[in-house]
Amino acid sequence: MTAKKALLAGLALSTLGSVAQAAEEVNIYSYRQEFLIKPLLEAFTAETGIKANVIFSKKGLLERLEHEGANSPADVILTSDIGPLHDAVERDLVAPIDSDVIDANVPAHYRSKEDKWVGLTARSRIIYASKDRVEPGEIKTYEELADPKWKGRICTRSGKHSYNLSLIGSLIEHNGAEQAEQWLAAVKDNLARNPQGNDRAQVKAVKEGQCDLALGNTYYYGKMLTNEKEPEQVEWAKSVNLVFPNQDDRGAHMSISGAALAKHAPHPEAAIKLIEFLTSEKAQKMYAEVNFEFPVRPGIEWSGLLKEHMGEFKADEVNLGDVVKHRAEASRLVDKVGFDN
Ligand code: FE
């Protein structure tokens, strides 16, 4: 390690675990939250003896990597969504991950075709439907959100949010840009209010009768249903049925949280060991239990809440790289139809 790198690492990276004289270490820039990542890194250090240093931040980590360039101490980038992984690739901040272990543990559709990122947890973007005002089976597909019967009945966060850009990207991939644009314009016409708030705020709006259908990621259901700090969220969750769309054709749109290897990683071997660990049975189980996400690795038992409320559903197995490549186009369509205005 150069003096500059040591200085940066020493100043900014806090060490987890208590391995006194670890021979190896790995530096992580994490957009994922501490409550989720810290126990995983502790388990990694316990298993491998590799010291894990981490910076948690909600934003600016890619900018930091870009600024640090070849002097960056970062080895691994952890993100809570596919969007920043795609950004990191576009900005030339990552190196390919060469690992047979990861290839065996993670299905190909959750990995970059060029090995530039790998999914660690999966979630679906589903329709939350009012129990009172929407019959089970009344809406079955994303495409049906465009039906005029839903006029004034749909709530969503901004079309520009990463989660919605991925969903729109999947519609571009499956149906073509022209149909995706018509769909987006029609969904806009069906909105109960201008896009605003986060995913949970839409379910709250369903509970309060402002709309009948909302778009949201699956894990928020678990987070609402078990929310002891804000018990009203339990009521929001109880007011809706979960609709996994497109079960009779391609399956529900999926996205991931994931990891990438930093282009100038000073410890590439330890970095790959960490990413491999995060795809291990042990880590995959921990992820799913703490945050109500789906393990990407097949054969891992789901947490009780997921099994009870989500059961088996058909997931879209299109390669996420083919979805994420449409993000710029998706963003352009959001502007073009004035979705957020
Ligand atoms: Fe989220």
UniProtKB/TrEMBL annotation:
Secretion signal span: 1-22
The keyword Manganese appears for this protein: no
InterPro entries: Ferric-bd
Entries under Pfam families matching the protein: SBP_bac_6
Coiled-coil annotated residue ranges, if any: none
Superkingdom field: Bacteria
Keywords assigned by UniProt, alphabetized: Signal
Family, as annotated: Belongs to the bacterial solute-binding protein 1 family.
Entry protein name: Iron(III) transport system substrate-binding protein
Organism: Marinobacterium sediminicola
